[in-house]
């Protein structure tokens, strides 16, 4: 690939084999280079192919105005998620996360730290992403000698979550609201205090996250199987309360999202609900024995 335009030491514009314009990022990829030089392949860590003029404008402006160090930090975060969790994030997260990191550090140097109103939800509904946010926060504090509060880990986690969803950050709030409402139905139906740190609840939340994404973005490609009425009857009779609660959730989802849960989806909800209530009951028995 031949350099067509240099954006900064870490970014250049070139074309792919089809002649379409692409943006290439890499640590020191343009250092000592000029237009017409060959791009060193061993330094390339990300290639963008903007699909619209607006995307191209935002991408070029971000790269031009942002210190390459923030792209490198964003890359470290993304690489670690991919290596340790097998998570592939949408390309957009490289830009949004990089821009966020640069802006946050700029504020931090002035002693301006923002509070995160969704911190509790992020910690409890997205604990895995939050852990990587904490790791990234420590990275920023060490790199720039700052003292970011945990709120910043939450903000970074939101960008990771949005990258997983493959959509913009507003989808994060929608998914959190969905999880919150479903959890509320379970709490009120059984009149229990759910242990948000428990393994059963964590698995329930993971199921809800994937289901929400499927329901909103892939419901027209419905691939879930459907259980026979005989199998469903067995599930219903094994834990009637969990099944009835799942039907309450089905009613809520139908009314709110215009999505009709299949027998299989109701079954999975009932199984998760049963695990949560069983675990809660066991803990209550232990407390009574004490």
TrEMBL record:
Which biological processes are named by the entry's GO terms? Answer: regulation of DNA-templated transcription
List keywords of the entry alphabetically.
Repeat
**Which parts of the sequence belong to the PRD domain?**
65-170, 171-283
SMART domains attached here? Answer: CAT_RBD
The yes or no answer to whether the keyword Repeat is present is yes
Alphabetically, the GO molecular function entries are: RNA binding
Q: What is this protein called?
A: PRD domain-containing protein
Q: Which organism is it from?
A: Lactobacillus helsingborgensis
Tell me the organism's taxonomic lineage.
Bacteria, Bacillati, Bacillota, Bacilli, Lactobacillales
């Amino acid at each position: 690939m031949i350099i067509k335009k240099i954006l900064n030491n870490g970014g250049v514009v070139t074309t792919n084999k089809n002649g379409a314009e692409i943006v290439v990022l890499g640590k020191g990829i343009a250092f000592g280079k000029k237009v017409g030089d060959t791009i060193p392949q061993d330094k390339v860590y990300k290639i963008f192919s903007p699909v619209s003029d607006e995307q191209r404008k935002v991408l070029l402006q971000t790269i031009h105005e942002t210190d390459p160090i923030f792209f490198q930090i964003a890359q470290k975060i993304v690489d670690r998620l991919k290596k340790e969790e097998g998570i592939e994030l949408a390309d957009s997260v490289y830009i949004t996360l990089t821009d966020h990191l640069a802006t946050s550090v700029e504020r931090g140097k002035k002693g301006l730290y923002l509070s995160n109103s969704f911190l509790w939800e992020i910690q409890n509904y997205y604990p895995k992403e939050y852990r990587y946010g904490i790791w990234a926060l420590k990275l920023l504090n060490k790199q720039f000698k700052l003292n970011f509060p945990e709120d910043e880990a939450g903000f970074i986690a939101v960008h990771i979550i949005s990258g997983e969803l493959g959509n913009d950050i507003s989808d994060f709030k929608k998914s959190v609201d969905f999880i919150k409402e479903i959890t509320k139905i379970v709490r009120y139906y059984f009149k229990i205090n759910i242990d948000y740190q428990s393994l059963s609840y964590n698995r329930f939340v993971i199921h809800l996250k994937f289901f929400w994404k499927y329901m909103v973005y892939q419901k027209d490609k419905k691939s879930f199987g459907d259980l026979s009425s005989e199998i469903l009857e067995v599930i219903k009779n094994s834990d009637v309360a969990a099944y009835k609660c799942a039907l309450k959730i089905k009613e809520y989802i139908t009314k709110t999202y215009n999505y009709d849960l299949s027998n299989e989806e109701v079954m999975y909800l009932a199984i998760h609900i049963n695990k949560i209530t069983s675990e809660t009951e066991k803990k209550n028995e232990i407390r009574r024995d004490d």
